[in-house]
Every structure is written in structure tokens, then in C-alpha cells.
Amino acid sequence: MARRTGASARTLALTKAQEAVAQRDAERIKREKQVEAALADFYQAQGEVERIHVTAEVAAVPFEAIICESVRSLDRLGETRPGIAGLTGLPLSRVRDCLSGVASNAPVVSCVDEPDRRGHPVADAAALGEQAPATMPVVRSGAD
């Protein structure tokens, strides 16, 4: 094979260089398109997750209110905050949030019996049942 020199050698070298650069650019473009597709999937899914969370939060509002009312009922029945957390599985911070702005262990009006061993008023379950909203179960003590 004859060795090329001069202008034809330079042209051949330039052609090989352009092919190498074109191949590298094609690989980079392919990778960029893959990155773009992955990001498009990510942002689409993220938008759906946010939409679902907003819808779920709106749907959960009445149940959140029932949860907090139930926590306040347990508080009025003499349960301690750690006790409520243990019974319900709620974090203590959530129990505190539900009770914030409400007098702790306030007696239930017109259905309070003798205080329990800690000195907290204990509600009569039958009287409480008359006052409890229809969506909340009546909690009955074992001492009927």
C-alpha cells in the first residue's frame, strides 16, 4: 500500500477525524435523547403524583376531622397523650396537633362520673353515646 503524502493525506485524515467526531456526536445525541425521555417520564409522573395527593388531601379532610375529634374524645376520657398515641398508632406530635387549642382532659359536659385513678374525669359511656356523632363509634368501658 502506498503511503499518501501532501494534500491527499491531509484530506484522508480530515475525513477520518470528521467520521470519528460524527460518531461521537451521534452517541451523545442518542444519550441526550434517552436522558430527555427519562426526564419527561419523571416530570409526567411527578405531576400525576402531585395531582393525586391534592385530590386525596381534599377527600381526606372529613376523615382528618373525625380522627382529631376521636383523639379529643380519648383525651376527655382521661387517656394520656402517650396513651392515645399507643392506642391509635398516631405519632405523639400528631396527637398534640389534634389537641392543640383544646383544653386537655376537659370533662365531657353532662356525662362525667367520678374521676379515674389519675384524678381525670371519666365520661359515662351511655351518656357519651348520646352525644357522639353518628360517624364515631361509642367507646364502652369494661366496668358496665
Provide a concise account of the structure shown.
By secondary structure, this protein is mainly alpha-helical. Helices cover 65% and strands 5% of the residues.
Multimeric state of these chains? single chain
Number of strands: 2
**Largest beta-sheet details:** 2 strands, antiparallel
Mean pLDDT: 79
- Using only C-alpha atoms, the radius of gyration works out to 35 Å
Secondary structure category = mainly alpha
Q: Which blocks of ≥5 consecutive residues have pLDDT under 50?
A: 102-114, 120-144
Total domains: 1
Distance between the termini: 109 Å
Characterise the protein shown here.
This protein is mainly alpha-helical. The chain has one domain. The protein contains four helices and two strands. Strands 1-2 form a two-stranded antiparallel ribbon. Strand 1 and strand 2 form a beta hairpin. Helix 1 packs across helix 3 and helix 2 crosses helix 3. The chain is rod-shaped. The termini are far apart. The C terminus is likely disordered.
Labels describing this entry:
about 140 residues; mainly alpha; two-stranded antiparallel sheet; about 65% helix; about 5% strand; rod-shaped; disordered C terminus
Topology diagram in text:
Blueprint: H1 7-76, H2 81-88, H3 92-99, E1 112-115, E2 121-123, H4 125-131
